Amino acid sequence: MYDFAIIGSGVAGATLAKELSEKYRVAVIEKGKNPSYASEGKNIEINYAYGLGGSAVYSLGNAMKMDIKGYKIDNDIYKEIWEELKIKAPEDDFLNDIDKKFIELGFKKMEKFIDFNKCNKCGECARKLCKAKWTPLNYLKQSKADIITEFNIKTIKYDGNYEILDENGRKIKAKNIIISAGGINSPRILKKLIDDENIGKNLFVDTFVTVGGILEDSYLNKDISMLVYKRYKNFILATHYSKLLLSEIKKDYKDVKEKDIVGIMIKIKDENNGEVLDNEVKKEITKEDFKTLVRGVGKATKYLYKLGVDDIFTTIPRGSHPGGSLSLVVDEFEVKEGLYVCDASIFKEALGVPPIVSIIALAKKFAREIL
């Protein structure tokens, strides 16, 4: 019998495993094993990863401190995170020439949980594991929790304690459950336990597009994406090499080389109008979202022209930070006695910026309340 069964091994789940396993007997339950990408949604393509470490295994290492509506986070928690993840901005000599050109245009260096001394600038942050970057796997290794992989939950029973069964008949018993499976899968799991019509509603995804074009020898493909950025009211601009953007450009310029592609990501704080259903995700671009994207594309285009880019191309709208899908159901962290949710699904509104340190902070706050 475990004291806590944490469902999900991503940012929140790994943080909770590290914090709670110092005092309690903890199991971390993960649907997958090796991290793999999944994609859902029609109008907006929503990408996330499942497997040990979750989506943050393929993150770009961005650290941005943000206020989380409805959750007051003590400054000492953020100080602890900055120390544990060794967060800092790159030194000037780490920057490529293209980064320096963006800084001349008013961009600033992004703080990251990346050891720049170990980074080889492969440009593959979003596609492969890397020893230079912190991921939830670091917290999982530091924890004393039992890690149980390839456990696809079929049912969850409650008789004073919880019994979690997978499709192969395996059982895990726990006094308490913490659902930390992310903005898409947490509502699907909670539906196995309670009946509430608001489960899955209020979804946001931090909608983004990447615009760019051809700039000879920019070598953005051999750089850390989002290394420099500029923040506006409801969106941010950041340098971003995108293979999807390359594909769009190749339609007109077949012989273009990766080293000659320059791109700017426009990531917006989108409205909570999406919904997670059992087998699909619905998310539309609202009128206000569209206006924000247009403003962002306009700003990015001006910067690209200043750099010398002539023809501008864009990717389709995508989303990479799903959240809010349980914000109408969960009050603070507790659903009912012994049942909790802690991850981005309980955010009241989109942050519009990379959320990893905010999710860690939320999980540390919850762990301290339990401890």
UniProtKB/TrEMBL annotation:
<dbReference type="InterPro" id="IPR036188">
    <property type="entry name" value="FAD/NAD-bd_sf"/>
</dbReference>
<comment type="similarity">
    <text>Belongs to the GMC oxidoreductase family.</text>
</comment>
<dbReference type="InterPro" id="IPR017896">
    <property type="entry name" value="4Fe4S_Fe-S-bd"/>
</dbReference>
<dbReference type="Pfam" id="PF13450">
    <property type="entry name" value="NAD_binding_8"/>
</dbReference>
<keyword id="KW-0274">FAD</keyword>
<protein>
    <submittedName>
        <fullName>Glucose-methanol-choline oxidoreductase</fullName>
    </submittedName>
</protein>
<dbReference type="GO" id="GO:0016491">
    <property type="term" value="F:oxidoreductase activity"/>
</dbReference>
<feature type="domain" description="4Fe-4S ferredoxin-type">
    <location>
        <begin position="110"/>
        <end position="140"/>
    </location>
</feature>
<keyword id="KW-0560">Oxidoreductase</keyword>
<keyword id="KW-0285">Flavoprotein</keyword>
